[in-house]
């Protein structure tokens, strides 16, 4: 098993989502001792925004790119290589203003490349990152699951499915800003869910 962990919180060591992703990864590693683990912390090392310069670099033939363009494309290439090599994806996604963090959106833009991680066919889009398992840890200060305010779950489910990752487990820690009791209850529920998922 090759585990790719993506942390996206800007809170560093104080991050709830990173803490829970670490817990899940440790359980996976304990269950599969020969597994390999790679951490990409987007909060500590943000991926640049996909802007006009990045688009121009991507659409310039490789042998005609400037040094800056080559370096910019290489940043995205590195992230694509990581997700291609992974068997298991652990994605930590805190809710920021009803959406995923900008850091995570930049990663999504970086790994979404036509003819590499997806392609369009006569029958519609086809994801090229098939055969992978994904765990998505969603942390929220309030309670949003199964409510109109939860924009993250359908977005991430659609995005992962678009790339061919359809075996996805969503793990929720909610009410984290609603007092110590609610926070502890959320953490306990997540730990129980993780244990059940690993044991299955």
SSE order and pairing:
Elements lengths: L1 E6 L8 H16 L4 E6 L10 H7 L8 H19 L2 E7 L7 H10 L6 E4 L2 E4 L5 E7 L12 H11 L4 E7 L6 H20 L1
Parallel strand pairs: 1-2, 1-3, 3-6, 6-7
Antiparallel strand pairs: 4-5
Please describe what this structure looks like.
The chain is built from six helices and seven strands. The protein starts with a strand and ends with a helix. The model has no long low-confidence stretch (mean pLDDT 95). It has 200 residues and is an alpha/beta fold. It has a five-stranded parallel beta sheet with strand order 2-1-3-6-7, with helices on both faces. Strands 4-5 form a two-stranded antiparallel sheet. α1 links the parallel β1 and β2 (36-41).
Short characterization:
The chain has helices at residues 16-31, 52-58, 67-85, 102-111, 152-162, 180-199, and strands spanning 2-7, 36-41, 88-94, 118-121, 124-127, 133-139, 167-173. The chain is an alpha/beta fold. A 5-stranded parallel sheet has the order 2-1-3-6-7, sandwiched between helices. A two-stranded antiparallel sheet has the order 4-5.
Name the features:
globular, 7 strands, two-stranded antiparallel sheet, 200 residues, alpha/beta
The Cα radius of gyration reads: 18 Å
Derived structural class:
alpha/beta
Biggest sheet: strand arrangement: 2-1-3-6-7
The global form is globular
Helix content: 40-55%
Quote the average pLDDT. 95
What proportion strand? 15-25%
Gap from first CA to last CA:
16 Å
Largest sheet: 5 strands, parallel
Strand tally is: 7
Low-confidence stretches: none
How many helical stretches?
A: 6
> N-to-C SSE series?
EHEHHEHEEEHEH
């Amino acid at each position: 098993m090759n585990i790719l962990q993506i942390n996206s919180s800007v809170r560093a060591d104080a991050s709830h989502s990173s803490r829970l992703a670490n817990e899940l990864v440790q359980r996976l590693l304990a269950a599969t001792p020969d597994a390999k683990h790679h951490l990409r912390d987007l909060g500590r090392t943000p991926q640049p925004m996909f802007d006009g310069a990045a688009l121009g670099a991507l659409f310039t033939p490789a042998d005609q790119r400037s040094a800056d363009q080559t370096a910019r494309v290489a940043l995205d290439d590195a992230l694509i290589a990581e997700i291609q090599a992974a068997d298991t994806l652990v994605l930590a996604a805190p809710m920021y203003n009803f959406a995923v963090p900008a850091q995570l959106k930049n990663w999504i833009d970086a790994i979404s490349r036509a003819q590499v991680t997806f392609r369009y066919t006569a029958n519609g889009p086809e994801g090229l990152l098939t055969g992978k398992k994904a765990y998505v840890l969603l942390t929220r200060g309030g309670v949003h699951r199964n409510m109109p305010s939860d924009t993250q779950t359908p977005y991430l489910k659609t995005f992962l499915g678009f790339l061919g990752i359809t075996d996805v487990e969503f793990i929720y820690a909610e009410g984290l800003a609603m007092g110590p009791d609610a926070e502890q209850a959320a953490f306990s529920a997540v730990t129980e869910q993780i244990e059940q998922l690993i044991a299955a």
